[in-house]
């Protein structure tokens, strides 16, 4: 039977999409073809390796509640006065406040994560190094732990916010799925000490959200009387397209999916690799969601080229806007009759 050492030189240091698909498939076949572990013992050992104490859980719950209270205060006090001064429509006031809140969070979160993966630990340029000296129960540095707990608390808050605070959009259920998967990945990756690769996941995702929310803010600021933000919104949208493809559809699969699906087996199997397939399934679902949303972005691009862009610039709100327009016409017709 092949040993872990047999495969030490079988992964690529600079993988392509082809390498990802072929190497990942071959790794799965090899990993599950050996008879060293039954599924029952495998799950038992994996769950037994969880390192998440009660104080950590309580801390994350407190952070999620804190974010919810902060958002209420931000939207009802700070943002509300600003949007009133800008004389936005009632619908755009709510959406602009929502996007401003997310923009501020993602800007801070990505900036701090960028510092960690590019300058503090250099995991982005050397993604294979995330598995160096890995072991279940290993020490998590404080700077990483801070980001992890804040991000986990934010996404738990985001589940509540999507259900009860955010404007309802066409991808409502997909967004709920995204938040649940993200919160689960953060929680599990911390518990089994995959926190280094977790930093790469956050790094590859949050930058696109910065440009997404900023572009939406500029679209909401556009009115029939004042369209000075229109050109700026087109620039923001262009940067969103570039960042989304580069970070979520290029770097994410080649830096993260290849590392967790291929490199992890060759570099950590002798130390007890845990939840290999479940963890990778969640990461691949995230990639599929990114692909789905990219097609929605391309639909917006098509609307821009054809001059059919909605006021919000978000195709997920088209049904909502059509419904609002239909209601307005109906009420107007009823008053006239």
TrEMBL record:
Gene Ontology MF terms in the entry: sphingosine N-acyltransferase activity
Biological process terms in GO annotation: ceramide biosynthetic process
Pfam family, one: TRAM_LAG1_CLN8
Keywords: Membrane, Transmembrane, Transmembrane helix
Subcellular location, record wording: Membrane
Pathway note: Lipid metabolism; sphingolipid metabolism; Sphingolipid metabolism
Domain TLC, chain residue ranges per copy: 80-306
Transmembrane regions: 55-74, 146-165, 172-191, 234-253, 273-298
Gene Ontology, cellular component aspect: membrane
Keyword Glycosyltransferase: no
InterPro entries, A to Z: Lag1/Lac1-like, TLC-dom
Entry-linked SMART domains: TLC
Membrane topology classification: Multi-pass membrane protein
Superkingdom per UniProt: Eukaryota
Listed name of the protein: TLC domain-containing protein
Species of origin: Adineta ricciae
Lineage: Eukaryota, Metazoa, Spiralia, Gnathifera, Rotifera
């Amino acid at each position: 039977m092949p040993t872990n050492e047999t495969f030490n030189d079988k992964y690529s240091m600079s993988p392509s999409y082809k390498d990802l698909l072929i190497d990942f498939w071959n790794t799965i076949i090899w990993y599950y073809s050996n008879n060293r572990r039954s599924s029952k013992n495998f799950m038992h050992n994996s769950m037994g390796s969880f390192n998440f104490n009660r104080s950590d859980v309580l801390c994350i719950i407190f952070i999620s509640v804190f974010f919810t209270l902060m958002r209420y205060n931000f939207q009802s006090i700070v943002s509300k006065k600003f949007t009133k001064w800008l004389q936005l429509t009632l619908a755009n006031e709510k959406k602009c406040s929502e996007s401003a809140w997310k923009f501020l969070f993602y800007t801070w979160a990505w900036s701090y994560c960028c510092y960690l993966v590019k300058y503090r630990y250099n995991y982005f340029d050397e993604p294979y190094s995330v598995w160096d000296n890995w072991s279940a129960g290993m020490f998590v540095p404080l700077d990483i732990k801070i980001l992890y707990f804040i991000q986990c608390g934010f996404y738990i808050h985001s589940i509540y916010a999507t259900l009860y605070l955010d404007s309802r959009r066409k991808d409502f259920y997909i967004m709920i799925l995204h938040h649940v998967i993200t919160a689960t990945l953060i929680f599990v990756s911390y518990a089994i000490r995959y926190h280094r690769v977790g930093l790469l996941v956050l790094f590859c995702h949050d930058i696109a959200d910065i440009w997404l929310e900023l572009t939406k803010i500029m679209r909401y600021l556009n009115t029939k009387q004042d369209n000075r933000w229109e050109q700026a919104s087109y620039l923001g949208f262009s940067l969103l397209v570039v960042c989304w493809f580069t970070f979520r559809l290029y770097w994410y699969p080649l830096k993260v999916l290849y590392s967790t699906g291929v490199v992890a087996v060759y570099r950590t199997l002798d130390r007890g690799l845990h939840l290999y397939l479940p963890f990778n399934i969640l990461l691949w679902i995230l990639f599929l969601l990114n692909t789905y949303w990219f097609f929605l972005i391309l639909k917006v691009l098509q609307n821009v080229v054809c001059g059919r862009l909605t006021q919000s610039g978000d195709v997920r709100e088209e049904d909502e806007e059509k419904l609002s327009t239909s209601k307005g016409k109906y009420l107007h017709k009823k008053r006239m009759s």
